[in-house]
Amino acid sequence: MLLINQAKLEIGAAANEPSHPLHEHAKFYLKSTEYLRETYGKYMHFIDIKQPRYCSGADSRGNDIPKMKEPDTLVYVPLQTYYVDKKRGKELWSCCLSNPVLLPNGLWDLGRNRTLPIKGSKVVSLETDMDLAFYLSYISRFVAKKLLKIDNPAEDAKREGDHKREQIKRQTAIWNMLDDDKLRMMASAYGIVQTATKTPDRIRIELEKALTLADQQKRGNPSIKGTDDFLEEMKVTDGLLLRHFVQTAIDEKKVIYKPDGKWRVGDKIIMMVSQDDVQKKRMFDALCNWLNSPNNKEKLLEFLTDLMSKEYLETIRDPKLFEWLAKVIGLKTAFKKKSELRKAVFEYFGNSATTLGDEE
């Protein structure tokens, strides 16, 4: 039996009568319990995620045992709690494991059993204890706060399978990239430093670690570039070329980040990184995103002009880099010969005062 604000939730009457004060609650219950039956079948297994616990110990003869299982401890789940619905607001829900008690004012009380003790785990039958399964799954905060875990082998297998597929996709993308020049460009665009001086396999190892970390962080921050973005940018996008150029400038100490939170070219301040990005150590991403913003086209052109030189342009082998630079200076690149774009870029940047790629 479930109580809502100390009133009995009688599913049949409430679900069939739209004017019933607990009609929406009954619909919520029926939809949720249908999902539980389809997903878990006849039983649900609730597990205390802090169990089992292990510690070092000794046997009766005093011999050290490095790993011993501690005795399971009881977790007490309150059978009455507040639940907040977006439309209805705050409600008091109770799950009665014994007969509810009728109070003199006509309301119902939880009764004798006010908590559910769980030692290690608890198996709940969906045929005889559906109210308890519903309460633990949707109303009690123990599952939401991950104090209890619902055992779901199919879901666990899918999660592990997704992880394996992500890992294979990442490894295939990195270790099957046989073009070393493209590998160095892609790696530097994803924050791998000094790619010009490292062996290809060392770059691959560092890049795989960087993408693994990025995929983990991306779950909480979709703006972070992970494996899927890497695969998309293997086509060589303008954003990738920008990130590669910026990392190269950082490696050659032409662009410097200082503890005051500012990126600089020499003494000239480019931008100030937000405190949030500093704390998350995303200063490189912050600079690239700022330069790549449509609102900062003039700033990007100024940034490139400060760094570009004829000597650096002569080291470029990838024609896509010339095409990107041509776009930045405002040229239409469609149907233009590569030689035309190269000439136009040289004419625009060739006389820059600062030299990217020159020796210090």
> Span from first to last CA?
79 Å
Number of strands: 16
Number of helices in the DSSP assignment? 15
Strand content: 15-25%
Using the CA coordinates, give the radius of gyration: 31 Å
> How do the strands of the widest beta sheet line up side by side?
2-1-8-7
Spans of 5+ residues with little confidence (pLDDT < 50)? 352-360
Structural class of the helix and strand makeup? Answer: alpha+beta
Provide structural commentary.
By secondary structure, the protein is of the alpha+beta class. It folds into two domains: 2-151, no CATH class; 158-349, no CATH class. The chain contains 15 helices and 16 strands. It has helices spanning 11-16, 23-40, 130-139, 141-144, 153-175, 180-189, 200-218, 227-233, 238-251, 275-279, 283-292, 297-307, 310-313, 319-328, 338-349, and strands spanning 2-4, 7-8, 43-48, 54-58, 64-69, 74-78, 80-85, 89-95, 101-102, 108-109, 115-119, 121-125, 148-150, 255-257, 262-265, 268-272. The strands form six sheets. A four-stranded antiparallel beta sheet has the order 2-1-8-7, with helices on one face. Helix 2 (23-40) packs across helix 3 (130-139), helix 6 runs parallel beside helix 7 (200-218) and helix 9 crosses helix 11 (283-292). It starts with a strand and ends in an 11-residue tail after the last helix. Mean pLDDT is 87; it is low at 352-360.
